[in-house]
Amino acid sequence: MAPIHYDVIIIGAGMSGLAAAIRLAYFERKVLVLERHYAAGGLNSYYALGGYQFDVGLHAMTNYVPPGTRGAPLTKLCRQLRLRPEDFALVPQYQSEIRFPGIMLRFNNDFECFIQEVIEHFPAQKDNFLRLVRCIRDYDELDLEAKPISGRQVVSSYLTDPLLIDMLFCPLMIYGNAAERDMEFGQFVVMFKSIFCEGLARPREGVRRVINVLRRKVREVGGTVRMRCGVMALHVKDGRVRSVELDSGETLTADTILSSAGYVETLRLCDDCEPEPLDPLAGRLSFVEIISILDAPLKHLGHDTTIVFYNTEKAFHYEVPKELVDPRSGVICCPDNFLYDKPLPKSVIRMTCLANFDGWSGLQEAEYVAAKAEWLPRIHREVLQFVPDFRDRIVFTDFFTPRTIKQWTGHLNGAVYGMPGKIKTGRTHLENLFICGNDQGFLGIVGAMLSGISMANLHVLKK
Amino acid sequence: MTNDQIRQAVLQIISVIAPDEDLTHLKSDVPLRDQLELDSMDFLDIVMELRKRYSVEVPEADYGQLASLDSCVAYLAPKLTAK
User: What is the domain extent for residue B13?
Assistant: First the structure.
């Protein structure tokens, strides 16, 4: 029997793959999305444990603008997917904080407030900061041909106070930087706009809402998603992918393959590629996250901040930690503290810190469990400098590590933001294989969806 | 299709692509881009919606012909009269 043929096969039912599928199916391409996991969403997904529901990824959706805001990424995204912004039911944040020793910068979804906050705390940097903001506003981050430049270098050419520089980089790196220590300036601009100029919001139902909206739309426009259906190999001949072999042994063919599995991860599937020279290109930054269900909202303990980005030392270190976890900096997210019209059914606190993939994956099962038990109080100790003591309100805790992320997403090293060297054009060495998602280089959930959309437009629909 | 039907068809397509825009006071002889927030992605979509709905091909060299409502009608009329 001849293998089933598609116009496009998409690898991965994450945000970028589903968005690409909607575009392609809407314009009458025969599209199949293949997902190895039984839950969609990829790095932004969900699970149930101990009778509780958990989100992974999405603390908040960045790039939030009120519905109808012209020219914003969220507006573009909705137009391209023929969705309404209301479909995502986004609820804006209350207020977030960047906390360094002895100083705090607050921000909400009104960028002017953040500008005032910076000027108030760093009066000597006022003109420099305003010039940096103009430079960021004028920068075209959508230019796929832009050459990478060092963000630290560019920002330091405007700002002269290292503390302010670190306080700006801290949230932007933690929420989207694939490289250690420095951040490519284009990526800095994308993140700066998405977090400070635009803002944070969350659907009341969390990431499930976003995934369900996308999956429903894929179905509505005639695309197919096959779950628990991983790709084992891409068979290559004469510079093209000739066929797609599934874990089950089944073979499919397609004119074009769009992969959100990651650049190195995708090339490792190609039977003309050797993995050894590729592996060093993969990203290495991963995180642990502790998610605790509480029996009372943190608001009742006096904490109404949505997200705290914290750093407990003078300088901010964004690199793979030598130990299993680096608790000196991180994020504390309270999904309760968005401006919902009614409170969430369960109160939650999420704490995220940089972690070492090799360390966690080298542990035997008993050591792995012991390491979690050891790090939980160490992370609490740091976090409790910024939130009221919530420990006696905990009813259930889950703790996931870079090993967990690798297991469920297939991303090498459990890398959450992909590889440092982004491939903005999405091209590979094969003429009908393209990548989208993390390694293509648009960031955040809105960015991931725009990545799928723009790669579908560029490599399939425009042809 | 009559010119008026073509005009309505184009308006219908724009309303699907940019539901957040108010089209009631759109001037026929002024470029769409001067009146609406439409980027190159949106123009690509106008072309693809024309193909999807009416099987009309608009080669990239002709995209400029879709600048205003009037020029859309003038350009599409010979392609759509039979439909």
Answer: 3-80
